[in-house]
Amino acid sequence: MKHFPENLSAKLETRIQNNALRKLPLSSKRIDFSSNDYLGFSQSEIIFNETHQYLISNKIIQNGATGSRLLTGNHKLYQEAEDFIANFHQSETTLIFNSGYDANIGFFSSVPQKDDLILYDELCHASIRDGIQLSNAKAYKFSHNDFEDLEKLIIRNPNTIIYIVTESVFSMDGDCPNLEELAQISTKHNCYLVVDEAHALGVFGSSGEGFVQMLGLQDHVFARIMTFGKGLGCHGATILGSVELRDYLVNFARSFIYTTGLSPHSVATILVAYNYLEKEKKNIEILRENIIHFNQEKNMLGLKQIFVRSKSAIQSAIIPGNEKVKAIANQLQEKGFDVKAILSPTVPEGQERLRFCLHSYNSKEEISEVLALLRTFVFEH
After folding, report:
1. Under a CB-based contact definition with an 8 Å cutoff, are residues 137 and 165 in contact?
2. What pLDDT does 379 receive?
């Protein structure tokens, strides 16, 4: 085996010294407060069985897509799934990508052009940032949810095509921007608004359709990115928008063009999960009740000051320092609760946190217990 490069070894050693080395965790039987499976769809026997039955009924016994969608991989399930998704999200059309990462890389690397400008929230996800890095457009970040800062940047760049980029639920803080105000700013300055809804699908809206639709703003948004690996409990993503946007992405988004398509089974799972989301409201209602209960309990226990304000399924307690936050996460795990520490450099130094992900299958008793333990470990040790 060839000797590992010294400069790479040095980078790993720095991570070890900073107590920030990432390792792949083993699956756990602890009470889940860490996964993105907000509605429990990944564990649903109904979705699993209906997907199998759908494939059998339609005589689909193919294991793989066999090629990119532009060659041999565009099997008939794609059209059916995309038609359903576009209708569900009240969008002109949509285009399925293999993952949320692929969707963001594909969109941001191909849509904004050389003389265009991308203005993105400073807390936007790594996949958005990576896509922007591949773009030929200029890009500036604006302070988190600070639209005065955003407007200053817009005014400084007259006669420019501008893309405003945000998330409807931020993955590390769990908070939401004022999308109504952002839509007004976008319209006022003739900008193109792009919203990543990865953590809103299944959580907001009467049928879990997302934050944009819940507010009735879908006609004010140029593109919405929906990710299926969270609220839908499966895999893949889609970009909602106009027919022209879809045609453009098919022709220029390299992460779409140069990859094998999803298997028929994957696309069938997406379709069945969306059908279930539309019909089954109970899980969404229970999740909402759990979010309310979590917020009430943290306030009652005097924990409000350490949490980022959030009405989503993501609740983050800021506990500065990699060592300290890891120690408290370990204590909670020893008590049977799967709560993960988010360390720097994933979040800025001093913003290390415990990230609680809430689900429809968490009981109110579990929520109360884990918060009571958190209070003990933070304030009494």
Report:
1. no
2. 87
Q: Provide the pLDDT for residue 27.
A: 79
In whole angstroms, what separates CA 183 from the centre of its chain? 20
Regions in the chain scoring below 70 on pLDDT: 381
288-337: pLDDT as tens digits: 999 999 999 999 999 999 999 999 999 999 999 999 999 999 999 999 99
pLDDT of residue 267: 98
Q: How far is CA 204 from CA 98, 144, 166, 235, 295, in A?
A: 23, 21, 16, 19, 17
Beta bridge partners of 167: 196
Closest CA to 225 of 317, 106, 123, 129: 106
Across the beta sheet with 223-227, the strand order is 93-97, 237-241, 223-227, 192-196, 162-167, 117-121, 138-142
Vertex 266: Cα angle to 38 and 126 (nearest 5): 55
Alpha-carbon distance of 95 to 321, in angstroms, equals 41
3-state secondary structure 59-75: CCCCCCCCCECCCCCCC
pLDDT of residue 20: 84
Pairwise CA distance, residues 134 & 110, whole Å:
8
Buried b (16+ CB within 10 A) or exposed e, 274-303: bebbeebeebbebbbebbebbbebbeeeeb
Are 297 and 368 within 8 A, CB to CB? yes
- pTM of the full structure: 0.96
| Cα separation, 310 vs 61, whole angstroms | 44
Q: Phi/psi zone of residue 147: left (φ > 0), alpha (ψ -120 to 50 degrees), beta? A: alpha
Are the beta carbons of 136 and 110 closer than 8 angstroms? no
pLDDT of residue 381: 59
Nearest to 174 by CA among 45, 310, 305: 310
User: What pLDDT is stored for residue 8 in this prediction?
Assistant: 97
Report whether 131 contacts 104 (CB < 8 A): yes
Rounded to whole angstroms, the Cα distance separating 141 from 164 reads 10
Query: CA–CA separation, 256 vs 243, rounded Å?
Result: 16
- Residue 126 CA: distances (Å) to CA of 74, 104, 130, 286, 346: 28, 9, 6, 30, 9
What is the model's pLDDT at position 216? 98
